[in-house]
UniProtKB/TrEMBL annotation:
<feature type="domain" description="HTH lysR-type">
    <location>
        <begin position="8"/>
        <end position="60"/>
    </location>
</feature>
<dbReference type="GO" id="GO:0003700">
    <property type="term" value="F:DNA-binding transcription factor activity"/>
</dbReference>
<dbReference type="GO" id="GO:0005829">
    <property type="term" value="C:cytosol"/>
</dbReference>
<dbReference type="InterPro" id="IPR000847">
    <property type="entry name" value="LysR_HTH_N"/>
</dbReference>
<protein>
    <submittedName>
        <fullName>HTH-type transcriptional activator CmpR</fullName>
    </submittedName>
</protein>
<dbReference type="InterPro" id="IPR050950">
    <property type="entry name" value="HTH-type_LysR_regulators"/>
</dbReference>
<keyword id="KW-0804">Transcription</keyword>
<dbReference type="InterPro" id="IPR005119">
    <property type="entry name" value="LysR_subst-bd"/>
</dbReference>
<dbReference type="InterPro" id="IPR036390">
    <property type="entry name" value="WH_DNA-bd_sf"/>
</dbReference>
<dbReference type="Pfam" id="PF00126">
    <property type="entry name" value="HTH_1"/>
</dbReference>
<comment type="similarity">
    <text>Belongs to the LysR transcriptional regulatory family.</text>
</comment>
<keyword id="KW-0805">Transcription regulation</keyword>
<dbReference type="InterPro" id="IPR036388">
    <property type="entry name" value="WH-like_DNA-bd_sf"/>
</dbReference>
<keyword id="KW-0238">DNA-binding</keyword>
<dbReference type="Pfam" id="PF03466">
    <property type="entry name" value="LysR_substrate"/>
</dbReference>
<dbReference type="GO" id="GO:0003677">
    <property type="term" value="F:DNA binding"/>
</dbReference>
Amino acid sequence: MQPFSRFLVYFLAVARHRSIRRAAEELHIAGSAINRHILLGEKQLQTPLFERLPTGMRLTAAGELLYGCARRWVRELDDLSRQIDDLKGIRRGQVDLLAPEALSRAFLPELVTRMKHSHPGVVLNLNIRDNRRIHHALLSGEGDLALVLDPEEMRDLTILRRMSFPLGFICRPDHALARHAAVRLTQCADYPMVAPEQPLALSAVFSRLMDARRIIPDVAARANNVQMIISLVTGGIGIGFLSYLDVMSEVMRGELAFVPLVGTHVPHLTLALVHDRTRQLSRTTHVVENIIEDIMSRHVT
């Protein structure tokens, strides 16, 4: 069911993309048709909603007001639809989950598998986003729940569950380091290392830890991609500095060993399950929440 007029659907798409062309590509509608409906809407409201700029479309003050109201209508309709679904039970339904790419290798596949076994009629829509933009996307109504790494400003969100993943070194199972339950940085200094590079957030952490201990690492290679670091370590190039979250699947399969790094200056990676505090969660969403919380509790190291 599409409860909104064509004008409002087109308006939201243009406002989101700041471009009629990109809105047309998303909606599979001719750009001229979208522009015609926008012009008719502006004529009816007797005010321009967009500034037509060489770089694209920018909302006017009136357009910002309409955009804010329209997003609220979408969220309220979505909440209503979920409450109606609750009246029908949780045999069917769907839940939108926002998550960073770091969870796509082990955490999210396990979640989908468990959902299909326990509630095969429920569709879990996984939206992989830049971790820095998940907060805004959730508050914009683009998800029901979100998993966020190292959350900062949580004023508008409710934290349902929080857990920490240790940072440490990964190595092959036959490496001498794999015999340790935990290590200090000085114990790893003599081993060749695969160092993380920007834009990986661990790059700054790695440099800060090395500087604090005045250690010059024996860098065998550098990589700005987690999978590349894993591949180089698997190939015997050296040990790699990552979080347990990054190598969860390889460790569980016995392909790699993870040795937590201990010390006063060693931070942890935090993962939080959150939702918009202004929205009521449906029964279906609570099912997904419970499964996520169970997975998080079982992966605490």
